């Protein structure tokens, strides 16, 4: 893949990630002034994750590093907006959320009880459940670490 | 009731109101504890100790070795970052001695949760699910299906929420509607060549992302009991969603999305 192709794909990925970040910010009733920053942060987070995954990292570690990045930027912005960083950052990581894995795992569990045990369903349940749990953990801990690390003693805002 | 007799009582009420606002509108426990104690210290208390559980908050203020303790029941009012931001601004103003406890009370009474207009939320959530479909390599036609299905589903969800329906039942019905629309569009409608990812993407509006992230953050910061409660709540919501999806699939004879 050439550099131009990669940049175009990255641009498309970032645009596609910005819309869900803003959409879910509306669901979370983020104040109006913060909405564009949510969208920008969502684009940065998902774009950096895509770049890392293209470079060959696995999805859990790239999610973790992307959410560390989102958390650090969120803390910087929260200091001039005087709001808790979670106001921006949670909506921004929603595009990286492993929704389809979580649903696939849960639907496999429901099917297991409906149709009885098969190994395929069990494999599907376990792999998707573990993937979803690790990605949620990576997202959440990645968002929390910059705050605990940089501002241990004094309050962030 | 005279207000001047015991200012500590007034401040205790304000502190627990502050904590309750934050807890009801989806702030994580560390923030609830931090802000209620900062407000108390800013208004002249020696220290403020609080104990937070999933559906109640207990808080004591200590001044000159006098303790006052009070409890409030917590009912979930839905995630609202606007309220969290407003409370945070009030606490910061009080810390800079720009507000005394009467002003804080007045400001708390004037907090009105921000609600975005329904059509805007429906449109943006529909577009979001379309984007999710495209991001998960479902193609542009899949994105169109996800957009249609999830817009209708989001409208249903908001209408049911405004009637205060139980959240799990609400999620189940919404997931049923979303899967029905997207599945029938793919199986019987004009989108026969579309990838089945669109069906999965159209229920992504129901993923309890905020509670799950708060759950892990709470447990990570030592609030294990509220974290587990949030995790259990989010899992129940996911289970309700999946039951809605499976009901729609078996009713209309749809295939899964693998």
UniProtKB/TrEMBL annotation, chain A:
Quaternary structure and interacting proteins, as annotated: The transporter is composed of YjjB and YjjP.
UniProt keyword terms in alphabetical order: Cell inner membrane, Cell membrane, Membrane, Transmembrane, Transmembrane helix, Transport
Signal peptide: none
Entry's localization field: Cell inner membrane; Cell membrane
Family: Belongs to the ThrE exporter (TC 2.A.79) family.
Keyword rRNA-binding found: no
Top-level taxon of origin: Bacteria
Coiled coil: none
Key word Lipid biosynthesis present: no
Pfam families in the record: ThrE_2 (PF12821)
Domain Threonine/Serine exporter ThrE: 14-146
Database matches in PANTHER family: SUCCINATE TRANSPORTER SUBUNIT YJJB-RELATED, UPF0442 PROTEIN YJJB-RELATED
Organism in which the protein naturally occurs: Buttiauxella ferragutiae ATCC 51602
Function: Involved in succinate export with YjjP. Both proteins are required for export.
Transmembrane segment boundaries: 6-27, 58-75, 87-109, 129-151
Protein name (database record): Probable succinate transporter subunit YjjB
NCBIfam families: PRK09917.1
Membrane topology label: Multi-pass membrane protein
InterPro entries: ThrE_2 (IPR024528), ThrE_Dicarb/AminoAcid_Exp (IPR050539), YjjB (IPR020914)
Main location: membrane
TrEMBL record, chain B:
Threonine/serine exporter-like N-terminal domain ranges (all copies): 13-252
Membrane topology: Multi-pass membrane protein
Keyword Transmembrane helix: yes
Record key words, sorted: Cell membrane, Membrane, Transmembrane, Transmembrane helix
First-listed, main subcellular location of the protein, grouped into a coarse class: membrane
Subunit structure: The transporter is composed of YjjB and YjjP.
Family: Belongs to the ThrE exporter (TC 2.A.79) family.
PANTHER family the UniProt entry points to: SUCCINATE TRANSPORTER SUBUNIT YJJP-RELATED (PTHR34390:SF2), UPF0442 PROTEIN YJJB-RELATED (PTHR34390)
Name of this chain's protein: Membrane protein
Lineage: Bacteria, Pseudomonadati, Pseudomonadota, Gammaproteobacteria, Enterobacterales
